[in-house]
Design brief:
Blueprint (H helix, E strand, L loop, with lengths): L1 E6 L20 E2 L2 E2 H9 L1 E6 L15 E6 L6 H8 L5 E5 L2 E8 H8 L8 E4 L15 H4 L1 H8 L16 E3 L4 E3 L4 E2 L3 E3 L5 E3 L4 E2 L4 E3 L2 E3 L4 E2 L4 E2 L3 E3 L4 E2 L2 E9 L2 E2 L4 E9 L2 E2 L4 E2 L10 E4 L4 E4 L7 E3 L4 E2 L4 E2 L3 E3 L4 E2 L8 E2 L3 E4 L2 E4 L2 H13 L7 H13 L9
Parallel strand pairs: 1-4, 1-5, 6-8, 9-12, 10-13, 11-14, 12-15, 13-16, 14-17, 15-18, 16-19, 17-20, 18-21, 19-21, 20-22, 21-23, 23-28, 24-29, 25-30, 28-31, 29-32, 31-33, 32-34
Antiparallel strand pairs: 2-3, 5-7, 6-7, 26-27, 34-35
């Protein structure tokens, strides 16, 4: 089995706030996380090179031979073939970006000791633009999601597909996967524009309308009467309802009630209260700007449709409204009438009327209560990460100064 090591490069901050709490390779895009994609494509087992404070939860495993891959790189058939044929101490470069390399254990030992490593033989593939699929910023997660669902379907064991109950309506002749124990009743599944994946023990309640490409992961639930459009991935143990369009939910998060969520990415352990809505299109149809942690300012996205990006453990109260292109950090608790600002820092408590700081001990209490409902625990490793994020993001909580 190939030993894979996925490394976060200097563009890690382009995927904040989601990468505050995980390496880039643990982002879900399509059916799989980036790590799972590479494990499938290269028949390997992956570990990580990431930020120091994340490394205890996401450690590195070094062996005699190691295939090192940029975490932002999404597999293609041509890229997979190139990486498979790498020789020891050989690297693939794209416009001076390191894409992948094969390195021996001694190379890593020298790196750890802060010594100069043996020079890698670089293979420049800058002209092979059809080979290289690099994600560049957080909006790529929802923007590329539909295409990645299509690509990931090649790695599904179709032999284990379950059956669709007679009370449902199936439209189109596209691919569909129904996992063991999945429950779907009196709903419409439309595969005309893309495949539909229903994971093990997942449930779609009656009266729901689903259009592919769509993924409902293991143990996730679609509530009664939901309307879900294509390019949407609902991660494991999540619950959704109302109307969704081109949404990626990483895992363990809930948008379980009426309200619209579109062109959005939610992290883990988020909860959107009943009738929470986000705008994904400006009234003047102009290009959307989004808070950019890498540049500490709002920057143009090149997108006309862009909704909500929310980090882990953040919550909204009932009837909450989010403006077009809103970024919410980690462990924010948002409530009250009106629209909050388009950038809500981590550990914010409040809304349009103003914010105070959400105390670290209180966030731990809330996380432990929420996670217990899914038979999960907040580990000491998790607490170390969240405490680091609390201090790291203090500069954005301007009311503390």
């Amino acid at each position: 089995m190939i030993n894979l090591i996925l490394f976060d490069d200097d563009q890690w901050s382009a995927f904040l706030p989601l990468t505050f709490t995980r390496p880039i390779s643990e982002l879900r895009l399509g059916l799989f996380t980036i790590r799972e994609k590479w494990e499938n494509h290269l028949s390997g087992k992956a570990s990580y090179i990431t930020r120091d404070y994340l490394s205890k939860k996401y450690p590195i495993q070094i062996k005699n031979e190691n295939t090192v891959i940029n975490s932002r790189l999404i597999p293609t058939k041509k890229m997979t073939k190139l990486i498979r044929h790498l020789e020891l101490n050989e690297a693939l470069l794209f416009n001076d970006i390191l894409l992948a390399a094969k390195m021996g254990e001694s190379q890593f030992a020298r790196l750890i000791e802060n010594k100069e490593i043996e020079e890698l033989r670089g293979v420049d593939i800058s002209k092979s633009t059809d080979t290289v699929n690099l994600i560049k910023r957080i909006t790529d997660i929802f923007r590329l999601n539909g295409a990645e669902i299509e690509n990931d379907f090649a790695w599904i064991d179709h032999a284990s597909t379950g059956t669709l109950a007679g009370s449902n309506t199936l439209l189109g002749e596209g691919k569909i996967y129904i996992g063991p124990g999945a429950r779907i009743e009196a709903s419409t599944l439309n595969t005309t524009n893309g495949p539909v994946y229903i994971g093990q023990n997942a449930e779609i309640m009656e009266g729901s309308h689903i259009r592919g490409p769509f993924v409902l992961h293991d143990n996730a639930v679609v509530k009664m009467g939901a309307k879900i459009y294509g390019g949407t991935t609902i991660g494991p143990w999540s619950k959704v309802g109302g109307e969704l369009n081109n949404v990626v939910i990483q895992a363990y998060s809930n948008k379980a009630h009426d309200g619209f969520l579109g062109n959005a990415v939610l992290g883990e352990w988020c909860n959107l209260g009943a009738d929470t809505n986000n705008s994904n299109l400006k009234n003047n149809y102009a290009e959307v700007k989004l808070w950019d942690y890498a540049q500490d300012k709002f920057t143009a996205t090149g997108l006309q449709f862009c909704g909500l990006v929310m980090g882990d453990h953040s919550k909204s109260a009932i009837n909450q409204m989010f403006n077009t292109g809103t970024v919410v950090g980690v462990n924010a608790n948002i409530f009250g009438s009106g629209f909050p600002r388009n950038f809500v820092p981590s550990y914010s408590w409040g809304g349009n009327h103003g914010f105070s700081t959400y105390r670290l001990d209180k966030t731990f209490d809330a996380a432990e209560s929420m996670m217990a409902r899914r038979q999960q625990t907040l580990t000491d490793e998790d607490k170390i990460i969240l405490e680091h994020v609390f201090h790291q993001t203090a500069k954005y909580r301007t009311w503390e100064v």
